[in-house]
Specification:
Pfam families: DUF72. This is DUF72 domain-containing protein. It comes from Paractinoplanes atraurantiacus. Helix content is 37%, strand content 16%. It is an alpha/beta fold and 187 residues long. It folds into 2 domains: 94 residues, no CATH class; 91 residues, no CATH class. A 6-stranded parallel beta sheet has the order 1-2-3-4-5-6. The longest helix is centred in the first third of the chain and has 17 residues. It starts with a helix and ends in a 5-residue tail after the last strand.
């Protein structure tokens, strides 16, 4: 990306560069069979009137593939009521670090960045707390710390001790997976 193109990107501004990047993202999601696309914000993306207007415009203009949810991770001081309002209005799933705040949408999406930083290994007590936070409701749990695969597998075993497989979650009779756990290797 050239310096001029970089100047057109970020902050949910809908520009030709962003439109092309979004179409590439959607294409990748379709190839991968993804069920969600994450819109992660830096803490510098504050809940100002102009930021909210740009987020709304982005969500209204961005093509959404069928069956793919948009997951929004606002970081920083976004008021719960505004997050709830925007998620409902724009059909977004709220992503949050469960050790900092709870997800505010009916389907929860939790991203664990590491309590003490990216190298953090979650303790059994922390994973038990996480299981209590997630509860029985529909949820995604994404470990984003460096030891993510091992932490995700430990959490899966803790949350689903009856399951001998690496399946995707708590299930009731005829219901979809309630908790999907991911800790993709690599990166």
């Amino acid at each position: 990306m050239s310096a001029d193109e970089r100047a057109e990107a970020g902050g949910f501004r809908w520009t030709p560069v962003v439109a092309r990047a979004w179409e590439t993202t959607v294409g990748c999601a379709e190839i991968l069979g993804a069920s969600a696309i994450l819109l992660q914000c830096p803490a510098s993306f504050r809940p100002s009137g102009s930021a909210v207007a740009r987020l709304r415009e982005f969500c209204f203009r961005a093509h959404r593939p069928a069956g793919v949810r948009l997951v929004w991770e606002p970081r920083g001081p976004w008021p719960d009521e505004l997050v709830r309002e925007l998620c409902e209005e724009l059909d977004l799933t709220h992503a949050a670090d469960p050790f900092l705040r709870v997800s505010l949408t009916p389907t929860a999406y939790y991203r664990l960045h590491g309590i003490t930083g990216a190298r953090h290994v979650y303790t059994d007590d922390e994973l038990a707390r996480l299981d209590g936070i997630v509860g029985a409701g529909p949820a995604y749990v994404m470990f984003n710390n460096l030891p993510r695969a091992a932490d995700a597998e430990r959490f899966r075993r803790l949350a689903h001790p009856e399951s001998g497989d690496s399946g995707a979650g708590r299930r009731g009779a005829g219901s979809p997976a309630r908790t999907s756990v991911s800790g993709v290797r690599g990166g």
